[in-house]
Amino acid sequence: MAxxxxxxxxxxxxxxxxxxxxxxxxxxxxxxxxxxxxxGGSRADESGSPASAASADAATIGAHFAPKAxxxxxxxxxxxxxxxxxxxxxxxxxxxxGQQIPDSVRGQQRLTGMSANQxxxxxxxxxxxxxxxxxxxxxxSEMLPHLGGVADDLCVIRSMYTESINHGPGVTFMQTGSxxxxxxxxxxxxxxxxxxxxxxxxxxxxxxxxxxxxxxxxSHLWGAGFxxxxxxxxxxxxxxxxxxxxxxxxxxxxxxxxxxxxxxxxLHEHQLESIPDTEISARIxxxxxxxxMQSSVPEVTDFRDEPAHVFDLYGADSRDPGTFxxxxxxxxxxxxxxxxxxxxxxxxxxxxxxxxxxxxxxxxQTDQAAAALITDLKRRGLLDETxxxxxxxxxxxxxxxxxxxxxxxxxxxxxxxxxxxxxGGGVKPGTSWGETCEFGYxxxxxxxxxxxxHATILHLLGIDHERLTYKFQGRRYRLTDVHxxxxxxxxx
Length: 492
Description:
Layout: H1 4-8, H2 18-25, H3 29-38, H4 53-56, E1 71-77, H5 91-95, H6 103-106, E2 130-133, E3 138-141, H7 145-149, E4 154-161, H8 167-176, H9 186-194, E5 204-208, E6 234-236, H10 254-274, H11 278-300, H12 308-314, H13 324-336, E7 341-346, H14 355-379, E8 386-391, E9 395-396, E10 413-414, E11 418-423, E12 431-433, E13 435-436, E14 443-445, E15 448-449, H15 450-460, E16 470-472, E17 475-477
Parallel strand pairs: 1-7, 1-8, 4-12, 4-15, 5-6, 5-7
Antiparallel strand pairs: 2-3, 4-11, 8-11, 9-10, 13-14, 16-17
Helix pairs in contact: 10-11, 13-14
């Protein structure tokens, strides 16, 4: 009697691994559907038809219309800078300094656990004078004299708002368009949509001011989320190797490294033939980029070719790698070399107490360098095509947190209104947009949500925010989620 194996023509084999099993199942219709779900989705081309996961990582979508900006330098001020002490002058707060905030102003807004139990919620006027600058008459705090010098280049949005009242969700929301970690960052979306210009440098670079306290900064803030990994930001560190493990180990020559990478690439391409996974193609691209960066990164981070007058422009700190001033200068050098998105993080704006002294300290570190960046870009003919953005995750309350005193008061988190400014890259210079109420607590005119800001940034880069999507787990995601509109009134 024939065995069951002989009757069916089945040849016994070794036990299949999970990957082998899924590869064989993938030949059927059910496997195709499963592969679609597990692949993390794919990009939609201009016609809306899905591209394969492998090919989606091979090219960029490109601009939907003529861009006004080619790149972005985002000066993110982590911690929530006080708009009331920097950009939004409210004389009424000084007139009513120490009085209780009216219930009609506060409404039903929830307070954080840091001030919810206060028996008194007194208004706190700013200890700083405000000065009007330039032909535009921009009103800025006396703590910002250098930015006052470039006031006619600024587009100041005083009516930003968010739903986030705590740092973690707030920073994540501003950087990724979602309060929950896991979504692609703004820079990753930009790289996914437009790609880079310089093949020897990443198109998305992250710089963080060294030796700063404040809320921690997590790598998901510049991550790729569910986009292919090649779109995530690359952090440049101060001192030593700007990118960890970029250099060859002792005794390994560039020729040996090239041979090793060629062999590794061949293995990855062989794997990619049977497993069309974007992570594999991203790994190939990242290894190749790292090899090219071995020469390009040391060149761009070496400031010895900068003349003395440039260091004088940015301030003494610009000679100290890793400071905000040095990072602003490095941002200009990266912009010159075709890097598309340059993200600077400066921490320690979370002033729950000792605000006057803390504001003086932070503006001393940032004011001159931020203004110098605008001036430097303008002198080199780069400002018109470079969008500079400055801002934090939310603002601060017009009432005092803790005990009110001249030198020791603080302000709590405030999501209802705060200030962001932009310069260059297609925005109207010397412009103010939006207005808060006389208490600096609510928006009185022209509100701008985070999704609106993101939509506007993408628009200036030539991207329709509703068309830049990525299919993931059966849904097409975008940076602006399901709403957001371009702020037409600030476009040049």
